[in-house]
Each structure stands twice: as C-alpha cells, then as structure tokens.
Amino acid sequence: MKTKSEAKRQAILAVAAETFGELGFERASMSEICARVGGSKATLYNHFASKEELFLTVMFQASEHEFEAVHRLLDPDIGDVAGALRDFGRGFLAVLYSPQVTAARRLVIAEAHRSELGRACYALGPGKGDAALAGFLETAMQAGKLRPAEPRIAASHLRGLLEAELLERFLFGVLTDIGAEALGPMVERAVEVFMRAYGPT
Amino acid sequence: MKTKSEAKRQAILAVAAETFGELGFERASMSEICARVGGSKATLYNHFASKEELFLTVMFQASEHEFEAVHRLLDPDIGDVAGALRDFGRGFLAVLYSPQVTAARRLVIAEAHRSELGRACYALGPGKGDAALAGFLETAMQAGKLRPAEPRIAASHLRGLLEAELLERFLFGVLTDIGAEALGPMVERAVEVFMRAYGPT
C-alpha cells in the first residue's frame, strides 16, 4: 500500500525524469521541477535534499532494471562459463556506457568527495553488482569450471579487464559514442584474458 | 634561454602551488594568486585561462617527474619481465593514488565533459603513459618473454588489472588512504593474472 508521501515521491521522480530529459542537468532547476509538480518547495526538499540527489535517484531508477537484467545472464547452472561471461560483459558495458548512465556516473564522481552521495551510490551500484558477479564466479569455482581463487578479487579483475579499453577515455571525456559493434571485440578480448588467468588448471 | 614571459609563468606556477597547498582548490582564488604574484590580472589570465587550467598545470608539473621515474623501471633489457612489472606497478599506483594526484585526477574528471581540458590531460597523462608501457610490452613480446599480442591492448589490460581493486572505490569517494603495504599484494595479484594470460606459451 502506497502512502501519500510515497505517491508524492513517485510523482516528483516522474516529473524530474521528464525535466532532466528535456532541459539537461544544468538547466533543470529545483524551482522549475517544483513548479511542474505543484506544491511547496519545502515538500520537494523534504523528499530530495538537493538537485544532485534527485537526479541520481532518477538515474538509478532508470538503470536499475537494466543492470538487474544483465546480472540475470549469470545463471549459476550454465555449462559454458566463458560464454556466460561474454553475454554478461556485452550487456554490462552496453548499460554502463549508455549516455544516461555515463552522465549519472560522471556526476557522482564529480560530487563524490563533497558528500555522502558517493558512498550511497557505491553501495547501490558497483558494490551490489560486484557482489553478484563474485557470487557467480564462486559457484563456477566450486563446480571446477574456474580455478580456486578469491571470488571478490576475481570479480574486480574481470570488471577491470572489461572496462580496460574504455574507462580512462571515458573519465577524461575523450570517449565519444561507442556502438555495440565495438563492444563485442573488447569483451571477447577481456574474457579471453580472464579465462586464461582463471580457467581450470 | 628563458624569456621574460616564461619566467613570469614559472613565478605564477610556484606561487599557485603554494597557494593551492595552503588553501585548497576551492578557497584559492585567482585574485588571491594574482595578489601574491604581483602584476595585473590580465597577465595572469594571459598565462592561464582559468583556475582549473592553472591547478592542473601545477599538478602535472609536480607529478610528471615521478611518473617518468616510474616508467624508467621498465628497462627493455631486463631479464625478469614479471619482476619489472611488479616494480613498475607498485611505483605507478603509489604515484597515481597519492593525495596530490587523486585530487588532480578528480578535478579533471569533473571538468572533462565541459572543456577541452580532458583531451589535453589525457594526451599528457594516461595517453603518454600507456604508450610507454605498450612499448615495453612489445619489446618483451619480440624477445619471446611474453606471447605475441597487440601491445596497446595488453597495456590497457595491465593497467585495468593494476587499478581493478582501487579505481571504482576511488571514483565514488569510498577509498580512503591506501598505504604502501596494501598496494604490494594488489600488484602481486594483478601481475600474476597478467602473466598467466600474457606469459610465453
């Protein structure tokens, strides 16, 4: 059962998503969003302490289902671990490097040292994702499909390899649109290296 | 022979380094730096178009020699490639995750999408570093100490592995001070994975 406050929160999020989409982060103001939602500014700030927080909630809400769908590709019963990691890698990078998510990620990074926002986003985003990936790898290790190793570290290494050709260029704003065609070969290379290092001995 | 303009530039950089160190980036203003250097604001802005540019120049000037020293550890004549990569990895992470360099890197990332600053910094920093690393790996491949592969991609993979346990936590502001003791084992693990994947067959 939704409370009145929760209904208001959802209404704010829907309007904010529309406003950010239309005006971009810089030009969309809390005043503008407030005017479109209706009600007082105090109510708006009661739900979201800042424009950054509101934006990030909108972003997470939009990408959460996509990331969850990607993680479902990591079926622990699957026979072909390398194949599952390739499917996961392609899906994961496609979501992570989508314009919406890169914009949100850049904003978090810029704000991270100033607030508790970074810590919250880490727990909700990469922290959660890495834990799920580590769980899959651990199952594969137990089934003898990967050599025994520390699953959390193996998950970090896989993520590091998957992003190796993209991350630095993204961070410095040098990376422009990457199509799905470019992602495929990068993921192939990363998973090949991972399997050489972590494959069964 | 230094021109008068170059001498002025160096004087500005010395004062700016002191001012940023004393007040931090936010509180150090161009007016304050100008007052300490002496001379007109026009002259200051003639040398550095913005506070960001001035800060980054100071940062690069401070870390450039350290990064160059780290890259000199990659001696192409060395017999033990894994050992050289471990020495390089420890030195590289120690510089890259020093408080000074992380502050500069965070600033570039935050500013990258707004200006040409990101592109310039990429070329001067990671672009240059990755090229040097790729050169070393290529020599090792030619000597049969690593399997044949694309050197630029192998360099990206090595860097991705070296930073795998740190980067995401740094970006989200979750990472606090890492001591040299913590870096050692991380580098061991990364180089072990790299050598399993790229070692001679």
TrEMBL record, chains A, B:
Q: Does the keyword Transcription regulation apply?
A: yes
For the keyword Cell wall biogenesis/degradation, the answer is: no
What Pfam families does the record point to?
TetR_C_7 (PF14246), TetR_N (PF00440)
The protein's GO terms of the molecular function aspect are:
DNA-binding transcription factor activity; transcription cis-regulatory region binding
- What keywords tag this UniProt record? DNA-binding, Transcription, Transcription regulation
Q: For the HTH tetR-type domain, which residue ranges apply? A: 6-66
Query: What InterPro entries does the entry give?
Result: Homeodomain-like_sf, HTH-type_TetR-like_transc_reg, HTH_TetR, Tet_transcr_reg_TetR-rel_C_sf, TetR_C_Proteobacteria
User: What residue ranges does this record give for the DNA-binding region?
Assistant: 29-48
Name of the protein in its database record: TetR/AcrR family transcriptional regulator
